[in-house]
Amino acid sequence: MIVNHSPAEPHEPELRAALAWAQRLGLARLEAQMLLLHALGRPLHDRAWLIAHDDHPLTAEAAALFPSLCQRRLAGEPMAYLTGRKEFHGLELAIDARVLDPRPDTETLVDWALELLAGTRAPRIADLGTGSGAIALALARARPDAQLLAIDASAPALALARSNGQRLGLPVQWQQGDWLAGVPGRFHAIVSNPPYIAADDPHLAALRHEPLSALASGADGLDDIRRILAQAPAHLLPGGWLLLEHGWNQAEAVRQLLQAAGFSAVQSRLDLAGIARCSGGTMPEKAADEMK
Fold first, then answer.
1. What domain count does the chain have?
2. Structural domain harbouring 30
3. Are 233 and 286 in contact (CB under 8 A)?
4. Whether residue 70 is found in the same domain as residue 108
5. 278: three-class secondary structure by DSSP
6. pLDDT tens sequence across 224-237
């Protein structure tokens, strides 16, 4: 939502006045509260403090920052870019315009991988197109015994992911690369949230603040998934799994591609809205042995 005219910026000294102004502007109450807390340098979840102290004066620094944050949010910029952080699978990640804003639905991919690897000791896992490192770091936290390799083509994205890993104290090997090209070794699981939006999809306009290279993938949105499928069989251990996130209407197409690539037990998992958001399959032991 882009606002062409707006109420005058808040000059009243109280926090309540700043929140009322943001809501008159058209901002959702929760988002206004989070942005005000960020402008004040307080934790984003500290809404109780904000309610209890709504008669406190707005600092000069917050008064200068808060209106611009509100305008940027109304112009469609993700909250994670404005606050510089996002919670994912219980982790607080640093997020900026170098990477996609992690979506809660991607936690479905993490949970599925953890379920499949529950009985595997010291699993080797590759996360392709890691972005902020969200998937790899969530897996590393849940499975301290795992060996995690996280790959991204973008050096700036990897710098942010590496920084997240260092701050959280989670051991992940970070590598710049083109999916699995040149990657040594084989894995118990390969997981990926790759670009999957068609290049001419009108919804891309609403995502203009996020990196296009992490969103669009050819005429049908499946070009990168096809490339991963061409490379993955040679990098999976016998019985290993390939798990892919995809668009809301792509589950059937991705399952067909998995089957055509020789995967078995092909299936999909539902996201938080009950939509088939992730699909995957396992590489039969005989087929994996033939790939050696």
1. 2
2. 15-76
3. no
4. no
5. strand
6. 999 999 999 999 99
